[in-house]
Amino acid sequence: MMARQGRFVACVVASALASSFSAAFAQMKDWGNRVEGTVDRPHAAPEYELLGFYAYRQDYPLRDDVNLRLRFYLPENKTFYIEAREIKVDKQYQMKPKPEKVSRNPDGWREFTGWPVSAVLNPKKISADNLGVIVRLDRPGEDAEDLRPAVLLASQPPPAISEYILYLTVRRKLNYLDYQVSGASGYSKTYQQKADQKDRSIEGRTVIPIRFTAAQFPPGLAAVHIQGRYANDLTAPPLDITYRFYHKPL
């Protein structure tokens, strides 16, 4: 009986310590226009995870006088959910703007301002190349397939969008990964990840940058369809994801 009670007490203490550690580790703060800080992310990896989707990302210096702006095109009255996070998770960073603090311009562009690097990004040393931004429509979860590519700015915007980049990670090793981009007026272009290499396999839980050109891309609704076959289980259904977005030139 005493041994059983001892084990019970030990489990309670361990659980309390784990909870207090998670609470101490996750430090999200309300900054008025956003919540930003660190969050205790679950350790169980999903089958795949979207890490960011950009139409343009401007490098920013880690200085306290830098303020970031985030833009995306959404003329419709649709619910949106914005998340900024690390691409390669290290500091467990997260930022979520409050929707009512995102302005709507007459030309259909939405804009979030007042995101100072001094608050969290500089203290945590999170640079632009490891910052992912995701703008989801209608629902916030991983199953949301309607996106809007983000434009991240530290100063003036570029003259044009030249390339899109979508960051993805997959839990299991892939034999290959292909993707097709389709758009208005019958636009279609096919890509192969690591097309110039004999071994096209991609290890699980690595960051996969999916790049595609914006040149000769007609404005309008578009989609990127991503497919891949798992390396160690050829009987499993293949990876098959479609993200829909809107291509809007600057």
Written account of the structure:
The chain has helices at 2-25, 121-124, and strands at 27-30, 34-38, 48-57, 67-73, 80-86, 93-97, 103-104, 109-116, 131-137, 150-153, 163-170, 174-182, 188-192, 207-213, 220-230, 239-247. Strand 12 and strand 13 form a beta hairpin. By secondary structure, it is mostly beta strands. The termini are far apart. The strands form three sheets. A seven-stranded mixed sheet has the order 7-8-4-10-3-11-14, with no helix packed on it. It has a single domain, classed as Immunoglobulin-like.
Short account of what is shown:
By secondary structure, the chain is mainly beta.
Compile the SSE list and pairings:
Blueprint: H1 2-25, E1 27-30, E2 34-38, E3 48-57, E4 67-73, E5 80-86, E6 93-97, E7 103-104, E8 109-116, H2 121-124, E9 131-137, E10 150-153, E11 163-170, E12 174-182, E13 188-192, E14 207-213, E15 220-230, E16 239-247
Parallel strand pairs: 3-10
Antiparallel strand pairs: 1-2, 2-6, 3-11, 4-8, 4-10, 5-6, 5-9, 7-8, 11-14, 12-13, 12-15, 15-16
- End-to-end Cα distance: 72 Å
Per CATH, what is the topology? Answer: Immunoglobulin-like
- Mean of all residue-level pLDDT scores: 90
- What are the low-pLDDT stretches, counting only 5+ consecutive residues below 50? 1-25
Q: Which sheet architecture does the biggest sheet show?
A: 7 strands, mixed
